[in-house]
Input
Amino acid sequence: MKRLLVIRFSALGDVAMLVPVVRATAEEHPELEITVLSQSRMADLFAGMPANVQFMGVDLQKMSLQDIVKALGAYDFVADMHGVWRSWYIDLRMWLRGAKVRTIRKGRFARFLFTHGLRHNPLQHSTTLYYRVLYCLGLVRVASEMSPIRVRPDSEKNGIGIAPFAAHKGKLYPLERMEQVVAALSAKGESVVLFGSKTESEILEQWAKKYKGVTSIAGKTNLGDELERMSKLRVMVSMDSANMHLASLVGTRVVSIWGATHPDAGFLGIGQSENDCVQRDLKCRPCSIYGKRKCKYGDYRCLDIKSEEIVAKI
Output
């Protein structure tokens, strides 16, 4: 049996977008033994995979790259879906063992043109970039399709999820306005579930105590439990963040809020519609792929969106 190693350590949203690609490849090649190498905390994303997929979780803070390589063994193919120095080291060691290695091409120049107003066509989606790595290894057709992720309203689903945080300021909707969204939904009698990390839990607990029908699970559950909770929601409200991708994986419709970044940069949740995105049409957008750049005006006007507009979209 041929063996394929797929590498992607972070970030959570990027690993989530890899899940359907791995599943589709495993279903197309049941004779292929696939190992996904990522951080241990990503394990729940790959639960319920076909029998020929195994997950290898590592702690990058405690394990050296040499230890990781020793634990891997030999592979026929290596698909480096990350393209950073850690994965390059593993690529080299696997290549020396005889593996055929291909690394993701992220299209950095195209991204530069896109964020500087010099390109206006949408960039390739992350899943397409992942597929191209597998295509270059001769494992899939370039036109291969993922296992369908059906994102649709469901009459049996109930509640609205809200994940108000993001890793970078350029993607973070003002919290005081998001609280207005929570207050409005509470006043309408909606059931609201707040998602966040343990470090974000204090603010969300305050909202939960303040508004009727609002519950916070921030810092109280593991990733698997969060995915289960999201799967039962009628709609999820998220920034351009990991929660958009997690909700997409379980088939929940997402109202996503975009600031400095843009859905056309290739990171829209799989199966989601750009019609469900809330964003401002500004000449300065997008100024960043990941939301890291400081606003040149200093006021992040791209996130100057009225809470009523978000409630209406929901």
